[in-house]
Amino acid sequence: MDWYDRVFVDTGRAASMWAVVGFLVTFVVVRGLTRRIRAKQRKPQGRTGLIHDIHIGGVHVHHQVWGILLVLVVGALEFRFSPDAPWGEILAGLFGVGAALVLDEFALWFYLDDVYWAERGRKSIDAVLIGGALGILLLLEASPIGETRGESAMWSYLLGIAVHLVTALISLLKGKLATGVLGVVVPLIALVGALRLAKPDSAWARRRYAGRKLERSRRRFGARYVARRNRLRDLFGGTPDLKKNSVSGNAESGRPR
């Protein structure tokens, strides 16, 4: 395929492309399966059919476990053998699969609690969206540090990197995780995040905001902002059970393992 070779192989982006494809496809498939299992387990007959949670020795094995193992194996093989095509692309695709399995349950290892279908489980969707966007930006060859153009430009180059990283850090301090992380790759995103208003519960707002500015922040990131954000999360991940803060133990349901 001339187009594939020209666009991905010759530019060294083939592995990144397969990693992104593996990540996105796995997330879509896993969320589809989890929502199907959840719907089936809400029926009176309970768990039926081939698609259901996996238990080993009576323990509910979360799919992040398989993702962690897959990422570890792929990393070990890549570091040891650094294989050429097509094995390098295959390992990249498997890495994307493992990363999706892990990030789809980000909230579980962040809170150390089984909150997949709880409100706090929406953080997993945030992690997946950030991870997917970051992978796509890297695939498009966005560089976090740019290029040098001769020795005379070195100080300007280093200053540009410093400003870039500082704006990304400010975005994170302002409570804008996605903006800060993606801004490491795309400087303009970090700059916009650093200049705009901080979230009211962020470290930046707690130390620097008071009076009218704090009130502006609360209005900007108030109930309507949260509702818009949750609609986007629910579109990708399904609506959580808002009556529960967490679901504990092996009783949590609705996910293939």
Describe it.
- It is a single chain.
- The protein has 12 helices and 2 strands, in the order ααββαααααααααα.
- Helix 2 (14-41) runs antiparallel to helix 6, helix 7 (154-173) runs antiparallel to helix 8 (177-183) and helix 7 (154-173) packs across helix 9.
- A hairpin with a 2-residue loop joins strand 1 and strand 2.
- The longest helix has 28 residues, at 14-41.
- The protein has a domain at 1-141.
- It has helices spanning 2-9, 14-41, 63-81, 87-103, 106-111, 122-139, 154-173, 177-183, 187-195, 203-208, 211-220, 223-237; strands at residues 55-56, 59-60.
- With 257 residues, it is mostly helical.
- The chain crosses the membrane at residues 15-33, 90-112, 124-142, 154-173, 179-198.
- This is Integral membrane protein.
- It comes from Amycolatopsis rhabdoformis.
- Keywords: Membrane, Transmembrane, Transmembrane helix.
Defining traits:
two-stranded antiparallel ribbon, 12 helices, mainly alpha, disordered C terminus, single chain, flat, 2% strand, 63% helix, 257 residues
Topology record:
Blueprint: H1 2-9, H2 14-41, E1 55-56, E2 59-60, H3 63-81, H4 87-103, H5 106-111, H6 122-139, H7 154-173, H8 177-183, H9 187-195, H10 203-208, H11 211-220, H12 223-237
Antiparallel strand pairs: 1-2
Transmembrane segments: 15-33, 90-112, 124-142, 154-173, 179-198
Keywords: Membrane, Transmembrane, Transmembrane helix
Protein name: Integral membrane protein
